[in-house]
Amino acid sequence: MKKIRKRNARKFTVYLLLCTIIFMHVSSIFPHTYLHAVPNKPIVDQQQQEDVVIEDETIVTQETVENEQELNEIKSSKNDEEKSDDTLQDPTEEQMKEEVTEESDNEIEETKEENIQEIPTIDEESLEVTEQREEEKTDTVEEEAPIEVLKDFNSFPHLLITEISPNSKGGGTDYYEYFELYNNTTQPLHLNHYSFYYNYTDSDKEIAFQLPAVVMDSKESLVIWYNANDKTLEEFNNNFDTNLSSEQIVELKDSNFPGFANGGNRGIIVRNQLNEQVISAEYASGESDNNGAVIEFKYPQSETTMEKWHTLVEPTPGIINIEQVPNQPVEVPEIVEDTESPIIEHTPVTEVDAFNPITIEAIIKDNIAIPSATLYIKTEEEETYRSYVMSGDNHTYTVDVPGEYIHANISYFIEATDGLNTSKTDSFEVEVQKEEVDYDKVPELLVTELVPDSTNVGSADGYEFIEIYNNTDKPVNFKDYQMQYRYGTDPESDIVWPAVPNDVIIQPKQTLVFWVINGQNDQKTVADFNAIYGSNLVEGKDIVRIYTAGMANSGVRGLIVATNAGRELSIAYYNEVEGIDDTHKDKGIVYKFPVDGSNIMSKLSAGTTNATPGTVEVFQVPSQTVTKEEDTKAPVIQNVTEATEIVQTSDIHLEAIVEDETEVKTVEVFYRTNSQEEYQSKLLEQDYNDRMYHHLIYSPEIIAKEYVEYYFVASDGTNETKSETYRVKIINTLDTSSLRMNVKNGDMISGEYVLKGTSAQDEYNQVDLFIDNELVEEATYQAIEHTAYLAFEVSGVNTYFQNGVTIGDEVIHIFDDWIAQWETITVPVSPNQLMIGDNIMTIRAGNKASPWEGDEGENRDDYNLRNVRLVLSDGTIIRDSQKDNPETVYDMGDDGTDRILENFTFSISNEMASSKAFVWNTTAVPDGEHTITVTDQDETIEAEILVDNTAPVITSSIKDGDEFKGNFTITSDIKDAIAGVKESSVWLDGKEIEVPYSTSSGALESGTHELTIVAEDNIGNKNREVIQFIIVEENPNMPVNTSPNHSVGDPVLRVEVSDPMSDDVDVTFYEGYQYTTNNRENMKAYSNATDMEPPNVQIPTGESIFEAKSIDLTSELDGEYFITDSSTQFPYHRFEVTVNPEVDAEDRVELIWKGNSFQGRKVTMYAWNVQTSKWEAIDDYIAGEEDFELKGYVKVSDFVVDNKINVIIQDEIPASKEEYDYTFVWMSDTQYYSESYPHIYDQQTKWIVDNQENMDIEYVIHTGDLVDEADQEYQWINADNYMKTLDDNNIPYGVLAGNHDVSQKTNDYTAYYNYFGANRFENRPYYGGSYLNNRGHYDLISINGNDFIMVYLGWGIDEEGIAWMNDVLKAYPNRIAILNFHEYLQATGTRHPIGEKLYEEVVVPNKNVVAVLSGHYHESQTLIDEIDDDGDGITDRQVYQMLADYQAGPEGGQGYMRLLHFDQDNNRVMVNTYSPYLDDYNYYDNDVYPGKDEFVIDLDLTLKEKRVATDYFAVNIFTDNKIGQVENVRSGETAEVTWTGLVEGQTYSWYTTVTDKHTGSTTSDIWTFVKGEDDQISNPPIEEEEEDPEVPTNPPKPTEPILPNQPSTNEGVTDNGGDSESTTTNPSQVTNDKEADKDSLMDETNQDNNQIKLPHTATTMYTIMFIGFILMCGGMMWLALLKKRKIQ
């Protein structure tokens, strides 16, 4: 039936298609009332319009609509139909479709007859065409164009935007931005019937703004001028050379309008009362310019977006080309007179805190228009109201009144108008609550106004300024103060901005303005400044200059006025509120004094009022000034500099203690060298830690100088003190002799060495070099004598970036420490790297991995560089001739300048190179003493030096090929005849040992061993000896149990022993215990499956005890199994064993399990540790096709309590849901949340908890940088508290340390250990194990049948850590491994060098690794590698390596974190990114950056079946209860003892240790038997009896029992752990054994009643016969016995 229905459906579809085609064809044949218009020539002017002939029957116009709303509904309906059928593009076809489906033929004819009309012409007075535009379009007029398709003019928008001018002529002077509107209707339009929006086309952000209630006549155009700078109409006309009237220009004054962006991607949207778009126009980057070019638009052919007609054309405000608008306006009915006023609904504000901005809100509605609203407000101190335009959006109107205005009680009312009618509210009173002010705590100097964005000069802001205010009753000299510029809120980033001049007096209650001079406005004068702001400032009196690049328009910044000594008086921040831009061109950011006792200025408004430099409002400053007492006491200076003399290559550290009874405002140090006449000076700030003043005189300033003189000057703002002058002597350690060389008596050299001879008086070519009295004539050259120093100053250097200095391909210095203020870096340069002529040295801005240029997209450090010079040893300073201005600052980095390196060329002249040099290859001469001689014109000097190219000589007590048996000692003897031994090390089989090292053939495994000895002498010669030696197979073989049956009398314990070296051995017999599942009184067994592996409790719920059948299956090693399977949990078998009470702490407990599992599964044996109350892994194995054994030893003290030991054997785990089955959350680099945005951190972890159930969040990953500053306790407290949210809700998570957590340079883990060390996690059931106190760790996570191992390794990865990771991964090969590091992928998506090492050494070798997660770099990247694990050329796995770090975004990343959704049904992981703080998915727009924050990982998530199949389990206890000992037993013979004093019917166990005289030792398995009946018959003496030492019946425990050094590795456990001959549990067999063994025991019984005879040996024949005798059955017993007697 289904097939028939489908076939019928297909037939019906074909039928409909054919009908449609026929219908369309018929329609095209009979077009009686429809027009298929013939294209005509575009209408260019009035005459051409009149020449067009129109036939009545070919015109169909739209039915007359009585009102505009009905017309819009019809047009909207038509537009919907146009969108539904892409094939109907022609307007007439749309008409055809509409009328066929909606009207009858009669209605069509009626429409034709009543509505046919002539196309109206365009009024030339309204559409003025300039001659220039006519000339530009002559091509269009002259060429014969196709006839235009006749249009439905009534379908076009009522309002058109014909021109946008976003960028006035001249950079930064956008005084004349405008857009042009055109009324495309037959009636006047009220602009307040529409709402206007400024649109960000690249983000869909919109800002509503209001236009005045203006009426536009039909076909009238208006210029909407954004007159933000209060220019006049005359100035507008002069700018564009126009003559527009005030009726043609509407001034846009709404402060909500931000002004057009010069960079493009902006637009205007107009909507009607129904919030439907009427028209929009937009422009892109590059479509306007600083020359004032504009964008012209023409009406849209469809939809409501203007078409771009021309870009980058001359502005023509008020002039419209006829091609920009339709030939005919839209017919609309006459507007009905509006007599109703708007209705205002408002809840009054009655109370507000002083200086807090208030928002006034009202609901305003009108029956026709979109009203405009105005707030009128005044303070009680004012007589007239000031007005604020209210912004409306969907009837809601709001306005923010700046806080600066809220300083006294206010009254206000709201007025609304629809253009014709006005309504207003009552007047409302608002009580302003004023702060209580402690005027004594208000800062002395206040920052009152900033302008970071101003009118441009060139391409930069030309009139930025800072205004400060003297809040004291005394004049203040600014020379004791300074301005500081702060990046963000971190004081470490402060840059001092010196004022020029700085010796300026600020009168009480007056201001000082600092004008920023940035290089482009250097030529501007204060008169220009005053012209911009309408001020009247005088240079050097109330305005000074600051020479700097200026204030940033984006990002948080601070301006600080501080004393020269470093005390911050007041701080003004801007852009500190996320998402709010405080910077607007020529608008002030206004501040008032702080009232909370702090020094943080209170921001009143930003970007709302014109800047007023030099003027403060009364509410900005306190009504009372700070009173300053008369100060007559000068500061006291104490010089505490320790240095009185210093080596010239060291820095001089000057220190002083300066105190004053009021306040020290300035401390300045003045210093000069002996070669300088003038002193240099530096302002010093007080060090926060020691409260002293410090200054460094860097070594490049004192090289080759004799002394430095210095003194201090201190000021308290009124009084000044000068210290006495001090002197530091400079010590030059270089040889200044008249003739000298670079070697001296006794020097040792090797390899190639550059010999130099230098004369103080003679030229270099008058100097001769001799080696062993032979003149060196060839290959000499002129050279620099001593080390030179590259010196340069830097500021703004960031920690962790590998900034460097290179010469050629060699890195000679890395600087990666934080340097905020200018500091000098000094880099030694070997003279052998310098040559006569040009020497190029390169200073580089590095990334976090390298100073080199690789990884093009990798973020690099951004810092400032200046004063680069090369200082020679004689004090000569060399500069690059093209870069010789020490004040020139080079902006290094990739923050826009893209200067990632800067080359400096230093030219060395012949005069600077005074030495004769020769490269001496010392390997060509014998080791030992050589004479170097140097002569000049009148002097000769020589030196006896030692050449040593021979490495240390190594001898050892071990020789290559030696074979060892027994004890031996490893020694080494290392000697170096000339240079002496510097260091050495000895390694045995890869492990370092201390020599002498004593060992033995018994302690080492048999076979070949490797001894490595490494040594280095004092000049770098190295030697390495590798010696291989052999250890014999020392340990005896496993003894074989040959004991007779123990059915009657005291049992005889007998073993056959052998030794691979045929050594005699000693055999010691000990008591043991063995328990199997057959011992039901001692062992109980259970089966179960749990969610955790291992379980987190000793006895999980749901266990089932082994039944009799299960016990039978597991009691013997017989290939029969008790099996427990699970696909959703971890199956296990638990064995609870009760051991003998006599077992003590000295006894050794062995656990043995044998069985199988599915191939590739890991099975682990755990024992319950009673000390830690945890299951502890004893042994594990990866299952193959064959059965396997788990075996291990445990301590009685740790694993036995109440005589019980618990053991489990467990395999590992796996289910499914809807779109995904469970989720992991991945966080990283949350340091800024801990530092500055703790609420975001809090929201992240709370969101995880809140969504744990509905998103099935099973685990959380954190890849480091929990805090920003490891030494800041509050940041650790924040991180601790918010991660504890996960702890409190039992959500598993793992963390690691990032570089910020451990202070990267020191790798100090102390704070990390305190808060996130292993003790925080050790009791968590998922916590697998720790490496170095959670420096690394792994978690075992199992969800729905998927088993994961999450491995973490924190900052400072080394070989030991990598080895630990590999060991962990090797131990869990069948778990899905996800590796977590802080640094792995770089911002470019390539691996960092350490990431490459981890990839090669960890990722590739471990086949279970599927993903690597990392942070550190501020990016989001994914790198996928395909790995062929088995080398067959086919990819076996894909490894997804991911970087996700959003900290570079606003607010430290705004809370974005990764979500990994695991979909088991489709074997995939869906990755996306989410911010709980913003409730927003994906930091990066997925349309713009596909695959960056949202993608899919293919991963095998199929369920894995788990199994535990037990064949045999036993617990063996090796006690130290000695039974007896036989010494000197030959290899291949037997040893035996008789064990007396045993109880009939009881089970006993025993074992032996076999040792030789050469340290060999072997321990047997445990054998078990049941004691038979006591024997009452005396036996005759045994022939060939050996001397037997007496052994007591119940031997006491020896104090030092002989136990094996190593547990036996041999198998051989049979029934109940022993041979079938020695242990029998069948009662019938016990009876027969009694009779059979009676005679053999008679001799021993009679000879020494109830005493154990001395042990003796027996022949091999006897043993064979005895075994044969035991095996005889029933009636053959007596015959076998007679035969045996005959043989004897």
From TrEMBL:
Keywords: Membrane, Transmembrane, Transmembrane helix. SUPFAM superfamilies: Lamin A/C globular tail domain, Metallo-dependent phosphatases. Residues 72-81, 130-140, 1632-1641 have a biased composition (Basic and acidic residues). Residues 1592-1601 have a biased composition (Pro residues). InterPro entries: Cadherin-like_dom, Calcineurin-like_PHP, Lamin_tail_dom, Lamin_tail_dom_sf, Metallo-depent_PP-like, STPP_CPPED1. The keyword Membrane applies. Residues 82-93, 100-112 have a biased composition (Acidic residues). The keyword Transmembrane applies. Residues 61-142, 1573-1650 are annotated as: Disordered. Residues 154-317, 415-608 form the LTD domain. Residues 1605-1631 have a biased composition (Polar residues). The chain crosses the membrane at residues 1661-1682. Residues 923-1041 form the Cadherin domain. It comes from the Bacteria. This is Lamin tail domain-containing protein. The lineage of its organism: Bacteria, Bacillati, Bacillota, Bacilli, Bacillales.
